[in-house]
Amino acid sequence: MDAVGLKKQVKAQTISSLYVLSGPETLLKNDAFLYLKKHVVTDDLSYEKYNGKETKFSTIVDNASMMPFFGEKKLIYVEEADSILKEVDDLIAYLKEPSPYACIVLCVKNVDKRTKICKELEKKNILIVCNTLYPNQAKEWLSGYVKKNDRYMDSDALDLLLDNVGMMLEDLVSEVDKIMIYAGERKKIVRSDVEALGVSMKTEDVFELTNAIGNKDKKNAIRILIKLLDEGKQAPEIIGLLRWQLVRLFGAGEMMDSGCNQKEIASHYRVHPRYAGGFIENTKQYKKSNKVTQFEALLHADMSFKSGLSDERGALMSLMLSLCR
């Protein structure tokens, strides 16, 4: 079930005793959680929050069994709950006899489709998968986000933004926020606003660059980087899109390890058929890379030019050498 299905379920007043929010789109997971919170929580005493890395599921169950002071149910939100999914027997036992007094929400990165707990969650229709949206869905979501900020973004501007930034909502929101600041008091955002802020890197560019990095091809990575800089691309734009693509590649690697096939992975990340083969090959390359090291290199480059320790070109050159080690 996706977030839309969850909202339909809640509107029908059939709120389950437990939900698992899974997938790469943190903003969609947050939207789903806030929707549940709005319909379950009646006051501060009927909401509890825990961290799954620090709290055992047995503790959460004990608190769930306590009757709320006000309202019919309380909402118990557990962030970083991936380790709790490993407490399979306790989870399944709870699902057989859940507390009538609580709705537990476990927020996780991903659920292995091959596991017993995944099958159980799917059977009970309580696994809420928040995948990367298709272009038309992302466009609708982003249009709604702009509207909440009392603005309007025309279709041409939305298309350009999606084409050049990708489908990850966090990245799109970051760019839209900049564009709204640039537009000032003006309510309507148009294509020229997107172009004015230099949001113009194409999908081919980021695939080509990450492919060179994955192959540890320093010479080609630097060649592509110089080409992008000569075309007027800015360091924040390049680093942002590299980060977006690396998140997808490392996530795809985890899916590959959990038994997902190439078609499922390409579908999950909404990769256009034109790029699917290259994306999978890229994923295989990055499975050999150290994720922490790669993201630390991006952060170091970002901080380097922002703090004035290095100019943008120098910081990016050093980044290429670091990523290609």
Shape: globular
The topology string of helices and strands comes to HEHEHEHEHEHEHHEHHHHHHHH
SS content category: alpha/beta
Oligomer: single chain
Outline the biggest β-sheet: 5 strands, parallel
The CATH topology of the largest domain: Rossmann fold
| Strand order in space, largest sheet | 2-3-4-1-5
Strand content of the residues, in percent?
Answer: 5-15%
Count of domains: 3
Question: Which CATH class of the largest domain?
Answer: Alpha Beta
Cα gyration radius (Å):
22 Å
Number of strands: 7
Low-confidence segments: none
Instruction: Determine the N-to-C terminus distance.
Output: 41 Å
Write the layout of secondary structure elements.
Blueprint: H1 3-11, E1 18-22, H2 26-40, E2 47-51, H3 57-64, E3 74-79, H4 88-96, E4 102-107, H5 116-123, E5 127-129, H6 135-148, E6 152-153, H7 155-165, H8 169-183, E7 188-189, H9 191-196, H10 203-214, H11 218-230, H12 235-257, H13 262-268, H14 273-286, H15 291-306, H16 312-323
Parallel strand pairs: 1-4, 1-5, 2-3, 3-4, 6-7
Helix pairs in contact: 1-2, 6-7, 6-8, 10-11, 10-12, 10-14, 11-16, 12-14, 12-15, 13-14, 15-16
